Structures are given as C-alpha cells and as structure tokens.
C-alpha cells in the first residue's frame, strides 16, 4: 500500500523547492488555456480543464508524499520541563501511536486523491457518452 506514495516521493523529491508557486503557476496556465479555448472548442476546453485538474491533484499528492517520507527531526529543547516530558516513555508511546495513525490517514488520503484524479480524467468522456 505504500509503494505508490514512496514512488511519488522519489520522483517529486528533486522538484520539491517552491512547491506552492509551481502548483499555482500550473493551475493558472490550465485556467488560461481553458478560457482561451472555451469559445471556439468547448470539448477541447473540457479536456484541458479536467486533465489539468487531474494533473494538479497528482502534483499535490506527489509533493505531499515528499513531505511525508522526508526524515523527521527529533524533538529538541533546552527547557528542563519539556525535556522531562519528551524523554518519558508515555510520550514515546504517544508518538509511536500518532505516527501510525498519521501514516494511515496519509495513505487513505493519497489513494482517494489518486482515484479522484483518475476519475476526473474520464469526466469529459462521460459527457460525450451521455450527450450533454
């Protein structure tokens, strides 16, 4: 179940700088192309919009995979009270449980977004089949 997220993390790792700007730029290009082609080729506009939306979802889950599988920093503090809490076995067990829960939530969200991306690629074809 972790094969695809780890594959996405490896593929998107070299491009993980300025992620928000890249996604926003890509979506702006898709919006501009959709607006340009809307008047004279509505079918092409629909294909551009839905494929751009699917690619945007893939970009989001790819960059989120990079964040999920990036090595995490250990908790560091100079406060003696926090140091006692961070060194306790209860805190370690809570961190262990939370890491499993957050990993499960990430995997579910990853696969749901991937399914939405695949479905959004087929939306224009559904419009053709059902004859808008």
Task: Tag the structure with descriptive keywords.
132 residues, mainly alpha, 5 helices, 0% strand, elongated
What can you tell me about this protein's structure?
This protein is mainly α. The chain has one domain. The longest helix is centred in the C-terminal third of the chain and has 42 residues. The two termini are 37 Å apart. The mean pLDDT is 87. Keywords: Membrane, Transmembrane, Transmembrane helix.
Radius of gyration: 21 Å
Task: Quickly count the helices.
Answer: 5
Average of pLDDT: 87
* SSE order, one letter for each helix or strand: HHHHH
When the domains are counted, the total is 1
Biggest sheet, in brief? none
General shape? elongated
What structural class do helix, strand and pairing data support?
mainly alpha
Unreliable residue runs: none
Strand content: under 5%
Total strands:
0
Percentage of residues in helical conformation: over 70%
Q: What is the CA–CA distance across the termini? A: 37 Å
Summarize the helices and strands and which ones pair or pack.
Elements: H1 3-12, H2 19-37, H3 42-69, H4 80-86, H5 89-130
Keywords: Membrane, Transmembrane, Transmembrane helix
Transmembrane segments: 20-37, 43-66, 78-98, 104-129
Summarize this structure briefly:
The model has no long low-confidence stretch (mean pLDDT 87).
